[in-house]
Amino acid sequence: MISKLIYRCPACSGFDWLQGDRCVHCGASVREEHQSLLTINSRRATIAYWYDRVLAFDLPVGKNGLIFESGNVKLHKEKFRQRYAGPGGVAAILYSREFVDRVSAALFRDRIELAGKKRVLTIPFTTLLSVTIESNVIIVVDRMLGPLFLEFLQDSGKKWEDGIRRALVDYKKPAEIVEFFPRIILGKELKKPGPDPPTRRPLYSPGRKPEGVPSHPVYLMARRLVRAVVSTGLQID
Ligand SMILES: [Zn+2]
Asked: Most buried residue, 92, 100, 115, 150, by most Cβ within 10 Å?
């Protein structure tokens, strides 16, 4: 459904706009020509072009700072499942998702609010660490609440990802956000001078085994195998 991606009318910028082949706000006519082409008010262009138009609009900020609200959202949080310890000191932690509540989400100019039947979770932009999308699920990581998974059952997930990111950009101005995932990074953070170059010997150098890490027979075999493949691959007839 094209309104999942083109979630605002490219002609009038209204949300929840498409019904049949018309915008419910301004009456603009819409025709899908092809998988990648869309004609709006007789102008034929690629979906990428129309999406850029959507992204160029400002967010409509109401008097109390409210930008938009959602319908039903399934809220999950991250849950520790098990720890894995493999050979050679390799360790990993496996997480799963645990259902928390059915909520409705509200995006404000400085926060996200998730209102359930019993309580409201608030994610201020000051503690929001990252935003990304996976299918129609928005994954936000808050410093206090940890990772939260917002599965939008009625709304476009893209609308929410773009909306949160744009609200963050406006909130952080004049600082510039250069990355939203895996961590929100400001341009000025990248320009900070790093620490002085290390003077001590590095813990690991090519050809030298990291200290305290035993060479497992499997790794030794794998290394020999990779060397054999690489040396074979580099042979020139
Ligand atoms: Zn319209």
From this structure: 150
Closest CA to 41 of 16, 12, 4: 12
- C-alpha 155 – ligand 1 centre gap (Å): 18
State the fold for domain 66-189.
PH-domain like (2.30.29)
Q: How far does residue 169's CA lie from ligand 1's centre (Å)?
A: 25
DSSP 95: E
Give the tens place of pLDDT for each residue, 146-194.
999 999 999 999 999 999 999 999 999 999 998 898 889 998 887 666 6
Segment 19-40 mean pLDDT? 93
pTM listed for this prediction:
0.76
Q: Are 74 and 29 in contact (CB under 8 A)?
A: no
Query: DSSP secondary structure string, 3-42?
Result: GGTS-B-TTT--BS-EETTEETTT--BEEEEETTEEEETT
CA 58 / ligand 1 centre spacing (Å)? 15
* Distant-in-sequence, close-in-space partners of 146: CB < 8 Å, separation ≥ 6: 77, 78
**What are the residue ranges spanned by the domains of the chain?**
2-56, 66-189
The better pLDDT of the pair 83, 54 is held by 54
Count Cβ atoms within 10 A of the Cβ of residue 25 and give its class: 0-12 exposed, 13-18 middle, 19 or more buried. middle
